[in-house]
Backbone:
């Protein structure tokens, strides 16, 4: 399994590296001892590892990270106001060069702990850091990329198609926040 952290380290390898420097850097990230393999074998192992990153996976509605189960909030219209605020604060500090370093924080916004069977806890922004650390250390990158792609494509398509009415959504989020504070 390749973790989100390994993928983030992989994204930090300078693009102008020579082929051998690149292979050596990737092999360090995935824990391969360079002295155990010749250049051809090492290149094949690194290439196989990179190929597994982009392998497609099923859609996930539930994930388990280090023994903790989480429900994935895929219905973005039902997100709580606090989830949107957290997501917005992350995205305001991200650009195309740094987004890979924030994948774990982005994904953690859409995960809610499962308390009992399918009963999920309410989103709590105070738990965000702990959940994002679990994502970074224990989530398979294929799952992470599938979740991230879903959220970004959904948002982009919704904006392009005019399906998100921001005033309506804001009103709904405020109403949900009022209801959350009452309970």
Residues:
């Amino acid at each position: 399994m390749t973790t989100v952290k390994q993928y983030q380290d992989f994204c930090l390898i300078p693009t102008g590296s020579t082929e051998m420097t690149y292979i050596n850097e990737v092999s360090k990230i995935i824990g391969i001892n360079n002295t155990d393999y010749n250049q051809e074998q090492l290149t094949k192992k690194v290439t196989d590892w990179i190929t597994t990153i982009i392998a497609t996976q099923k859609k996930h509605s539930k994930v388990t990270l280090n023994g903790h189960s989480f429900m994935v909030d895929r219905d973005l219209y039902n997100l709580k106001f606090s989830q949107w605020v957290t997501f917005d604060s992350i995205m305001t500090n991200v650009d195309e060069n740094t987004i890979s370093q924030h994948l774990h924080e982005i994904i953690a916004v859409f995960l809610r702990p499962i308390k009992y069977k399918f009963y999920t806890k309410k989103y709590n922004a105070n738990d965000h850091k702990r959940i994002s650390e679990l994502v970074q250390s224990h989530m398979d990158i294929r799952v992470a990329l599938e979740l991230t792609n879903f959220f970004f494509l959904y948002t982009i398509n919704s904006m392009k198609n005019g399906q998100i009415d921001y005033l309506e959504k804001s009103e709904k989020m405020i109403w949900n926040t009022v209801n959350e504070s009452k309970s």
